[in-house]
Amino acid sequence: MPEIFINGHPVQAEKGQTVLQAALANGFYIPYFCWHPALSIAGNCRICVVQVEGRSWCEISCNLPVTDGMRVLTDSELVRAQRKDTMQFITLNHPVDCGICDKAGECTLQDYHYAYNGAPSISREPKVTATKFHDLSDRILLDNERCILCSRCVRFTREVSKSSALGITRRGDESLLRASEDGVLDRDAYSDNVIDICPVGALLSKSFLYKARVWYLKPTPSVCPGCARGCAVDIWHRKPEWKLRALDPQQNTSIARVTPRGAQGPDGPWICNKGRDLARIFERPRATAPMVKGKPVELAAALANVRSLIAAARHPAALVSGWGSNEEFAAFRAAFGDTFRVHVKHDHRPEPGEVVEDGFLIRADKNPNVAGARAVFGVGADSPPAWHGDTDLVLVWGEGCNFADLPRGAAVVFLNAYLAPENGHADVFLPISIATERAGHYTNFEGTVQGFAACFAKPQGASDAQALFESLATVAVATP
Ligand code: SF4
Ligand code: SF4
Ligand code: FES
């Protein structure tokens, strides 16, 4: 292991590391714009300069390999002067419209301006203007004046999503980021990652545009339920202390945006666009009234009906939700033992136009926890289920069941979170909470178990499935 010295302190670096990597890994901060740990080195922003002791010039640390005995300074007078000049250069034509920029509060350019420059522009020339609100794709807006041409987004589409959808046209102060004209970025299922990795506010999410200042939001750790990969995500929503009392109070309980949680999940630092669109899945009209044969009743009456149906059934079966959590599966098992013949259900299937599976993150199974259900019940998702000929009761938990496929004449108990015509067709209907309203764990297709936390309270009238199973636990089943 090469030993280097950073600001006089000995540091054990890894062989093959750059000075930037060795410094960051050992608690020495060096600023960077264009470097990204998951992308190739471009070396174009020049903000990461350091000085090797004894040399009268600076060099970029993101492309400087460590060598044994190397002595570098990250904060010499020369380094400070060069960083300041670089910041002046990078912001030469910047519009400084931070007051209306969605990146404000998370912008590296803002942070570095205060840390390494702090002075007004020394230029007396008028700023070169460029296109604002350029439609880069159906999902992304580009502000060319804010772009510092770091090329992170270009490299992402070449090296990670492999769409090669972005490039930089023209030269000098006429350089512009542009998408290829055949709509490839629209078809790139991972395109929105460029919004996260853009170090400035040049790439803007249309769905998040001007929705909230980020300091009014907080992230809750969660797991994307969009497929069996189970990417680790942060669900961003309004902080309780910044609750809106006027305007649209619904914003207090809605998802503002979804971002990848970082490199620690099974997805690395990336997620697909479906994972960003969880509001479309979760924010559908909700069912809140328990029903018996389509008529709203109190929860206690609905549960009494379920108890009678289970007690009278001779061959009960259950379609267990592939969106249930490990805790809910355990509660089901503890409550009912072997009472039900269990089938695991795919609540969601690929939608028209959706990427079914690729060689990267997206999995064909559009449910987060079929692996967790298999671990508890010993069966995978069989579709359509092989019904026992005498099945006389089916407990259907979650979406994705066509009632016409259920055994003829069987009574149906239905647990669902959303408004659906089937709710009123069940003998007993019980409205349940969704994953953003409770905590739990999912097991992904590789066996990785990850937790998710609640972001919001469940609507009045909805119950946690786990609580329902526990309250039905004492039901005796008729012996066949
Ligand atoms: S849009 Fe952002 S990520 Fe892309 S080149 Fe410009 S500054 Fe870099
Ligand atoms: S790959 Fe699957 S789990 Fe990951 S963000 Fe996309 S839909 Fe969600
Ligand atoms: S981070 Fe090193 S040149 Fe940009």
Describe the model.
The protein is of the alpha+beta class. The N and C termini lie far apart (71 Å). Among the domains are: 3-90, Ubiquitin-like (UB roll); 291-471, Rossmann fold (3-Layer(aba) Sandwich). The protein is built from 13 helices and 22 strands. Bound molecules: iron/sulfur cluster (2 copies) and FE2/S2 (inorganic) cluster. FE2/S2 (inorganic) cluster is lined by residues 32-35, 43-48, 60, 62.
| Quantity of strands, as a count | 22
Bound molecules: iron/sulfur cluster, FE2/S2 (inorganic) cluster
Distance between the termini: 71 Å
- Give the number of helices: 13
Topology readout:
Layout: E1 3-6, E2 9-12, H1 19-25, E3 49-52, E4 59-60, E5 71-73, H2 77-90, H3 108-117, E6 134-135, E7 140-142, H4 152-159, E8 166-169, E9 176-179, H5 184-187, H6 193-197, E10 203-205, E11 217-223, E12 232-238, E13 257-260, H7 273-276, H8 278-282, E14 291-292, E15 295-296, H9 299-312, E16 316-321, H10 326-336, E17 341-345, H11 370-377, E18 393-397, E19 411-416, H12 421-425, E20 428-431, E21 440-443, E22 449-452, H13 465-471
Parallel strand pairs: 1-5, 16-17, 16-18, 18-19, 19-20
Antiparallel strand pairs: 1-2, 3-4, 3-5, 6-7, 7-10, 8-9, 11-12, 12-13, 14-15, 14-20, 21-22
